[in-house]
Amino acid sequence: MGKFRLLFLFIILSFSSVIKAQVSSVTVSGLVTNTGKAALPYTSVILKSSKDNAFVSGTITNEEGRYSLTEVKPGNYQIEVSISGYDTYSQPLFVGSLSEFLDIPPVELGQHLNDKETKIEEIVLTSDKKNEVSNQLDKKTYSVADNISQAGGSVLQSMQNLPGITVQDGKVQLRGNDRVTVLIDGKQTALTGFGSQTGLDNIPSSAIDKIEIINNPSSKYDANGNAGIINIIMKKNKQNGWNGKAGLTLGLGSLWERKQNLPTIRPQYKTTPKINPSISLNYRKDKINVFLQADNLYTETLNKNEYVRRIYDDGKVINSQLKRNRNTNFLTTKAGIDWNINSQNTLTISGLYGSEKIKDRGDQPFFNGDFSQRLRLWQFLEDELKTTVMATASYQHKFKEAGHLLNIGFNYTFHREDEKYFYGNFLPSSAGTDAFKLLSDEQVYDFNIDYVKPLKYGHIEAGIKLRNRNIPTNMNFIPGINSVIDANAGGWANYKELIPAVYGNYVFENKKWEAELGLRMEYVKIRYDVNPNHPTYSSNGYNYTQPFPNLRLAYKINDHNKFSVFYNRRVDRPNEVDIRIFPKYDDAEIIKVGNPGLRPQFTNSIELGHKYNWDSGYLYSSVYHRFSSGTITRISSIVPGSNLIYAVFQNAGRSYNSGIEAIWNQKISPVYSFNINGNVYRNQINAFTVENLYPQPNTFSAEKQTAVSGNIKFNNIFKFSKGINAQLTAVYLAPDIIPQGKVKGRFSMDLGVKKSIQNGKGEVFLNATDLFNTLVMKKQIQGSGFRYTSDDYYETQVIRLGYSYKF
Fold first, then answer.
1. Is residue 436 in a domain?
2. Per-residue pLDDT at 567 exceeds 80
């Protein structure tokens, strides 16, 4: 009954909403000529309020007869164009909310009062929304600085409290789906994965300015990621002269032992330190802007502490604990230069260097059903270094009309994954040592041309994208005595990806209606070459040419109400790690393996969104439905004569995700405001049968699986006097389905306080995540020939103290 009450509550919230649009300024430009098409310089262009005829803005045309009116706010106006010796013309001007720029068709002024008037047709001006929920209802934007309770941590931790996002097994989910594409400054990078998501728990949030959540991406974005896009915008300052910001955050986690180790293993981490120094520098003078951002995040973490009970169909019971003490050091440095060649041309060259050093010291004991006998102890050391180098060059040409742009960009990425594992395998009567080394060098070349032209009632966007990606990987297994490592599964493999794409997008707006229609055409060619000695897999690949349309249609009932309907088609292409042929021994008896036969998952999405505002807040709500074919998921199974579980990626058939989401933001007083985000959804995976090839062919079948789940986040924001702000966040995640099983509900609460000091130049903060240490990941898995339950008491409670200073 509790689930149905929660569902009913959010249905009511969805259809009872309210919101006032807060839009930024826009620029309108145009050309003034006489009837002979000759430019009219020094012509007066004035903007007046249509309500009381009050002066709002004004300018004069330049020598070419062109003008620009800036800082125009949404509303209804009159625009007047006049010059001595010519008739004065006036026309209504409507300011909308879709485009930042508008180019008015040329205005022809006739001489003398008896000349034929050339009237300006009614103009629609548009602008981007700069608050949390965009006026187009297509994305939500959040400032990292406002997330006080998670300040000083990683990007992944900063995302945990954002509306619409949940975190599970180190991955972010949008509306219960982890097929999310993560961008940095609008680009896919090796730092966060090309079409996947990696490294988010190590990138320091101190390097980040804003985070955008895009549930319904337009055609200008890559088609990968059916759940949507998260765009991480890094800090960059453009103030004149020298300026910058320096900060230091210190923290402690694992303040006490939440569950005692099983016997005979090394201690788990306690009172783990976190250290995050950061600096941002900027110098701007005349036509040059130089910037530098550097952050280092060092953490010691109880990364995993999972207690598992496995029961096999023959009655055998195995109890185990997987404990992982992790040391991580992640350095990111970004530097670049903007050269404003002239008023119409800008060149930016930048580079990024990232170094992620990880050391895991783990223990995994295995006991019989009543813990009377230790069957085996697996101890390991993982020593991994990930290095990322990026070089970017971008050129922008501004045409004479404001907002008329041509952007050309080139991006090169090199990413090296150098991973070494050392295992100690202790049996009752003997011991052995296993090891392996993996080396992967990824190189990616991206080239793009993007064109934007403002129109009379909106704008058009078009572009060309080209990506070439190459990932050669080598794995060397070194088995010891009593080894469980499959030494024959090593060798080399090479992943090759070629993706050319073209897109076009048209946006239209008038006083009542908005429309956005786009189409992206992508050709994808994937080739995965496997060494001929591999015992199971052989070279494979695929290619396709597919359209990916998007549509948004909106109707504005009045200034407070707007409905939008969305449709888009997207794809989830298997990433290189999804098809990687080499077994991964994170767990001694649950082996993860890729699948070169994996194919793309295609998804169609529809959504109805509503925004309703009032003076002190808003309510945004949406109803959505996604249906996918070729659903990508991990399948866990065993083979005859072995207790090892093999988790292999497969295409499971059709799946569905439907739900309701609502965000209520309310200012109660100058001191207190809150926002509540709720999401209730239903996931379904149809029955399917697949054949796993590794380590030997075996068939797996699953019945249809459904679940109703959701989450609710309650953010309380306090703004006290003397520059003191506070945030209290409560998060509840309802039980949900995962491949072959369920994850139980979770609850946590975070608290943060910050104070402005030193006349606003300095800031100090104190926060605590998972305040009451209640967040535990509990799973139930039903496999083929076995079932197991697990409780993961990994580190969730962290206390941080930080200071930053602007100069």
1. yes
2. yes
Q: How high is the pLDDT of residue 314? A: 87
* Predicted confidence band of residue 24 (pLDDT cuts 50, 70, 90): low
Q: Which has the closest alpha carbon to 712: 694, 698, 732, 695?
A: 732
Give the pTM.
Answer: 0.80
Tell me which residue of 601, 526, 516 sits closest to 553, measured CA to CA.
Answer: 516
Residue span of the structural domain in which 112 resides: 23-125
What is the β-pairing status of strands 724-733 and 746-757? Answer: antiparallel
Give the CA diameter of the chain.
110
User: pLDDT per residue over 393-441, tens digit each?
Assistant: 999 999 888 788 999 999 999 999 999 999 998 988 888 899 999 999 9
Which one of 110, 125, 140 terminates a domain? Answer: 125
250 and 120 within one domain = no
Does residue 312 sit within a domain?
A: yes
CA 507/CA 96 separation, integer angstroms: 12
CATH of the domain at 752: 2.40.170.20
Residue 8 has pLDDT above 80, yes or no: no
The secondary structure of 64-115 as a DSSP string is TSEEEEEEEPSEEEEEEEE-TTB--EEEEEEE-SS-SEEEPPPEEEPBSTTS
In a domain, 155, yes or no: no
Q: If you average pLDDT over residues 599-605, what whole number do you get?
A: 95
Answer whether residue 307 is part of any domain. yes
Beta bridge partners of 604: 569, 627
CATH code of 111's domain = 2.60.40.10
Q: What is the tens place of the pLDDT at every residue in 460-470? A: 999 999 999 99
CB 97 within 8 A of CB 25: no
Give the pLDDT of residue 515.
92
Given 78, 103, 125, which residue is the final one in a domain?
125
Token pair in block for residue 156: 């992944």
Q: How far is CA 203 from CA 98, 174, 296, 298, in A?
A: 33, 20, 9, 10
User: Which residues have C-beta within 8 Å of that of residue 315, sequence separation ≥ 6?
Assistant: none
Count of domains forming the chain: 2
